[in-house]
Amino acid sequence: MNTNPRPLEPTEAPGLGNDMDWAAIRARFPATKHWTCLGIASTAILSNAAKEAAEEVVRAHWTGDNIDKTLKPKLGEVRARFAKLINASADEIAVTKNVTEGLNSVAHAIDWQPGDNLVLCLDLEHPNNIYLWLALGKRGVELRIVPSKNDAIDAEAMVDAIDEHTRIVTVSTITFTPGFRCDLAVIGEAARAAGALFLVDGVQSCGVIDTDVERYKIDALATSTSKGLLGLAGLGFLYVAEPWIERMEPAYLGRFGIKRGEGHYSEFEGHDYELSPNTQRFEGGNYNWSGVAAAHASLAELLAVGPARIEERVVELAGLLATGLAALGLPVTVPPDGTRRSHIVTIGTLGAGDTETTNDPRLDRMARALVEGGVRFTIRKGLLRFGLHYYNDETDIERVLEIVKPIA
């Protein structure tokens, strides 16, 4: 008998407003009983419902059961659920493998012409939003590289770099380190005015910080389910705004990317074909069905609470952690003036170290103590990085402060 709680449906929520039952949500994530889970900026933990959904697919392969009739409808539903999360339509969502595939799908669907340019900030992007552009640079696309300012993406400088030859402007919604928000609205407005496509890496925000593509005038967004969406690696989503879909020609094409007739998907229907009229034209082949099933469950649970409510909760907790660490005299990174803190809290000096150690012996001692104390966190560019989600609570903050206080 399955003793795991069923997944919430998007219309349900365990409490309303100030009476939100965060403890009930936390109980759905058994990892929180064994670890202090502050590693969401790197890897998700699964809810009981997401685990059971993914295991059902694996179990069916193992037993030889045919669950196509129940599994296939989840594909359309998972597109619709992610679309709702970011305020888009289901026709604007493609299922991909990861962020890298989504970004590359957009980059290579543009009809680049001599003299075209791209605007980005190399200092703070994840390598997966760097290498593809360097490759395009070798093919003649001008890269307009904007320096960071105060360890954040300089929105005004990004805007100043845009001109009539700019085809794409790309940023992360939240940098993977030090974890500061980007001023998406300013950049999105300028890109749209210039006719450029505004492409964002949304993996550090989707599912945990409200990421509204309409509000921020985002034209394309790539993410994966392996972080804030609380799913598995090997599944992602690509959003492309409806006005851009017909203007983009996929670099590679598979059976699910074309407009099909009535025949089975395995049948060849002729040399003349049309691309899918929606973003599914970017779906190249068969799907990670375990990932689809897990995301189907996790997205329902996220939508039951709502992105705005989740953001409010995690930012409040992040503020408590940042304040507590700063009170101990630790070098907590501070977002630029006027920028609200995200769910990511980092301590140290950006660039003073790597992914294993910092250049500060005290922080290294803290890192070892945190690991020994069962705290899941990461180190990036020499910064100790803590990421919060809606399953975290005040006891997690207290645990971190308890461990680091004797060393601080």
Task: Give a topology summary.
Blueprint lengths: L21 H6 L8 E2 L10 H16 L4 H19 L6 E4 L2 H9 L9 E4 L10 H8 L3 E4 L9 H7 L4 E7 L11 H11 L2 E5 L18 E5 L11 E5 L1 H4 L43 H17 L1 H21 L16 E4 L13 H12 L2 E2 L1 E3 L2 E5 L6 H11 L4
Parallel strand pairs: 1-10, 3-4, 3-5, 5-6, 6-7
Antiparallel strand pairs: 2-8, 7-8, 9-12, 11-12
Overall body shape: globular
Q: What strand line-up does the widest sheet have?
A: 2-8-7-6-5-3-4
- Overall CATH architecture of the largest domain: 3-Layer(aba) Sandwich
Q: How confident is the prediction overall: mean pLDDT?
A: 93
User: Stretches where pLDDT falls below 50 for ≥5 residues?
Assistant: 1-8, 10-17
Strand content: 5-15%
Number of domains: 2
Stated plainly, the CATH topology of the largest domain is called Aspartate Aminotransferase, domain 2
Strand/helix succession: HEHHEHEHEHEHEEEHHHEHEEEH
Helix fraction by DSSP (H/I, runs of at least 4): 25-40%
How large is the count of helical segments?
Answer: 12
Strand element count: 12
Largest sheet data: 7 strands, mixed
Characteristics:
12 strands, Aspartate Aminotransferase, domain 2, 3-stranded antiparallel sheet, Aspartate Aminotransferase, domain 1, 7-stranded mixed sheet, alpha/beta, disordered N terminus, 2 domains, 408 residues
Describe the protein's architecture and organization.
This protein is an alpha/beta fold and 408 residues long. The protein has two domains: 70-302, Aspartate Aminotransferase, domain 2 (3-Layer(aba) Sandwich); 307-404, Aspartate Aminotransferase, domain 1. 35% of the residues lie in helices and 12% in strands. The chain has helices at residues 22-27, 48-63, 68-86, 99-107, 131-138, 155-161, 184-194, 242-245, 289-305, 307-327, 361-372, 394-404, and strands spanning 36-37, 93-96, 117-120, 142-145, 166-172, 197-201, 220-224, 236-240, 344-347, 375-376, 378-380, 383-387. Strands 2-8-7-6-5-3-4 form a seven-stranded mixed sheet, with helices on both faces. It has a three-stranded antiparallel sheet with strand order 9-12-11, covered by helices on one side. The protein has a two-stranded parallel ribbon with strand order 1-10. Helix 7 links the parallel strand 5 and strand 6. The longest helix has 21 residues, at 307-327. The N and C termini lie far apart (49 Å). 48% of the residues are buried. Residues 1-8 and 10-17 have low confidence and may be disordered.
